[in-house]
Amino acid sequence: MWVSFLKTIGGVLAAVLLLTGCSNDTTEQDKGNSKVKVVATTGMIGDLVENIGGKQVEVTSLMGPGVDPHLYKATQGDVKTLDSADMIFYNGVHLEGKMTDIFEMMSKNKPTIAVTEDLKEEQLRKVSAKEHDPHVWFDVKLWMVASEAVKKELIANDPDHEASYLENYEAYVLQLQELDKYVQEEINKIPEDQRVLVTAHDAFGYYGKSYGLEVRGLQGINTLSEYGSKDVKDMRNYLVKNKIKAIFIESSVPRKAIEAVIQGAEKQGHKVKIGGELFSDAMGERGTEEGTYIGMVRHNTDTIVNALK
């Protein structure tokens, strides 16, 4: 498996070297008249860049609805898309672990930015001695920091439209502040002894820490980690002991393991329902409420509150 992985990465990087060696025939005049071509890894980041960049940017997101960024492998088509971009925005904190080498290569030729670059060590959720939780977008206050990083980098790359980027940024931050307030007010409606969020994997740690929920995930922060029968048994026992009434599935994670937990609890006389589907590592379909960052967070919050209160 490891040899196969190295061959895959090697092939992709070879494609990068070939593509980045090609000449760019775009003239300075063309650059001045065209939109800034941005490639984002996840839908959340793409949505962030669209809101701040506005009509000055053209955004392509590599990972669509239902795609797990922990497992995502770049194709040669993705490499071409990245190579044709003026700027690249990615999450960082090892969310897109399989693409790290590509980002390093691309950064030699164009702005390649982790939106989490300005987060401080103490703001990141530490899950092991060498690992931090990458799911920072579920703390809306941290996503405001990410939005500032996007604004800063867009201005640095395209100073002629600084005023537009600043105006869009300020308007979007006001929306994020309203969202942050909404989430807290809604979570406060859940009885304190029921503020326990159980999901397929540990994607909601920042959400729980910021808004006052205990969070349990069957898998760790990375879906690359395998869960076993012991994990299912431990989760089942936790639900039974604490009389947890609802457990949640995720749009980008198979529901098989969650169903096994529910069945195990039922065998012990404790009924657990699926409280709904949450969007964790990917947003919903474009054109839907869940297809935007703000809509996704509101949907998740409403789903959690309705199931637990």
Describe the protein's architecture and organization.
This protein is α/β, with parallel strands linked by helices and 309 residues long. Helix content is 47%, strand content 13%. The longest helix is centred in the middle third of the chain and has 26 residues, at 162-187. The protein is globular, with a radius of gyration of 21 Å. The N and C termini lie far apart (46 Å). Residues 1-9 and 14-31 have low confidence and may be disordered.
Mean pLDDT: 88
Distance between the termini: 46 Å
Structural class: alpha/beta
Strand order of the largest sheet: 2-1-3-4
Report Rg.
Answer: 21 Å
Secondary structure tally: strands: 8
Annotation field: number of helices: 11
Taken in chain order, the helices and strands follow as HHEHEHEHEHHEHEHEHEH
Shape: globular
What is the gist of this entry?
Helix content is 47%, strand content 13%. The protein contains 11 helices and 8 strands.
Describe the structure using short key phrases:
single chain, 13% strand, alpha/beta, globular, four-stranded parallel sheet, two-stranded parallel ribbon
Task: List the SSEs and their pairings.
Blueprint: H1 2-20, H2 28-33, E1 36-40, H3 43-53, E2 57-61, H4 76-84, E3 87-90, H5 100-106, E4 112-114, H6 140-157, H7 162-187, E5 196-201, H8 205-211, E6 214-219, H9 229-242, E7 246-250, H10 256-267, E8 273-278, H11 293-308
Parallel strand pairs: 1-2, 1-3, 3-4, 5-6, 7-8
Helix pairs in contact: 1-4, 1-5, 3-6, 6-7, 7-11, 9-10
